[in-house]
Amino acid sequence: MGLNAQFVEFASHGFACQKCHLCLAQFRISDVVREPTLMRSLFRFAIAGLIVGFVWQSTWAQDLAPRAYLITPIHSNAITMAYGFYSGNLDLGNVPITDATARASVPVISYFHSMNFFGRTSSFVAYLPYGVGNFEGKVFNSETNAYRSGLLDSVYRFSVNLNGGPAMTVRDFQKWRQKTIVGVSLRVVAPTGQYDPTKLINWGNNRWGFKPELGLSRRWGHWVVDAYGGAWLYTTNPEFFSKNQFNPGVSKQTQAPIGAFEGHLSYDVKPRLWASFDGNFWFGGTTSLNGVENPSSTLRSSRVGGTVSFPVTKHQSIKLSYSNGTYVKYGGDFQNVSVGWQYSWLGRPK
Fold first, then answer.
1. CB-based contacts of 5: which residues, under 8 Å, 6+ apart?
2. 256: nearest Cα among 214, 213, 299
3. Is the alpha carbon torsion for 336, 342, 348, 350 positive or negative?
4. Do 240 and 21 contact (CB within 8 A), yes or no?
């Protein structure tokens, strides 16, 4: 979740419990009302933080990924260029901000490679995203807006099929028919995005994220059912909004694990042409600043959507997807439309 919780923690400690170690925590609401400039600054802190947070959340933390444990011949490769558009409302928690909305674009480039891992099919994927966001809202009826653009943290995923997915050449793969597949994966978010500890709003999270996951895939004829379960684990951000005029010292931000479940029901129309119904649910992720917990940042949300993938040529395909929030407790209640172009080929990297 990352920045999705940062301002609410920062602001709710300031407005509600007065325990925040930042200087802005000493302001009373009456002081803020009398200072339009401060109100606009607080809005930009809040909205920009939430938009970055929900973009990161939807793109990496709580994405909908049908057929994530798909079996391919060893030495399969694919480059994907995708574009996602996010639009919706923001729930900022215990903060005096209303009518908060956001629109964001996230282009992503990724590389996929499959390999033989001790006789089992495995794969590695690397993602590099970029985010552009526009957001607006009201702080005590004062309207304003904000804009952000920059690199998000890079993401890496390694998966291996433990049952039902032996490593296969192209010839063996042509004879193979899927039944039940059980796999595990580890997703890693590296702190490579843009980050400045003196600023409250950053595209990077300045911490590592890890998601171990167990996946199950079962085929019945043209139908495929996928189910995944995992948890996001985060390291500490050692310099959260630190070494500046508001906080000359160093503040540390931590976040509790986030449990995540995901399910998909898909249908093969013909080879490489399929459609799926997707859904997920996640919970947890309460944040703390210098050891002070913010209960209002606890997550409990779900999304549903659909995906269609179809071939264009022998090596190219297009994937379209749409999703929307069904239940959102804190964070972004948004719609997402994405399109991806993929070029795939067989052969060892040279």
1. 53, 255, 285, 287, 294, 297, 330
2. 299
3. negative
4. no
pLDDT, tens only, 258-309: 999 999 999 999 989 999 999 999 888 888 888 888 887 788 888 899 999 9
pLDDT at 318 over 50: yes
Distance, CA of 289 to CA of 145 (rounded, Å):
27
Domains in the chain (CATH in brackets) are 2-346 (2.40.128.130)
Contacts of 107 (CB under 8 A, 6+ apart): 81, 82, 83, 84, 129, 130
Both structure tokens of 119: 């006789």
- Of the candidates 136, 191, 133, 163, the one whose C-alpha atom is nearest the C-alpha of residue 69 is 163
Q: For residue 35, how many other CB atoms are within 10 A of its CB? A: 12
CB 349 within 8 A of CB 329: no
The winner for highest mean pLDDT among 41-45, 128-132, 208-212 is 208-212
Residues in the chain: 350
**Strand, helix or coil for residue 49:** helix
The pLDDT > 90 percentage for the chain reads 47
> Phi and psi of 244, rounded to 5°?
-135, -175
Tokens of 23: 């200087």
Q: Residue 26 above 50 pLDDT?
A: no
Give exposure, 281-315, as e/b (b: 16+ Cβ within 10 Å): bbebbbbbbbeebbebbbbebbbbbbbebeeeeee
Greatest Cα pair distance, the chain, in angstroms, is 74
Nearest to 276 by CA among 212, 333, 217, 214: 217
What is this structure's pTM?
Answer: 0.83
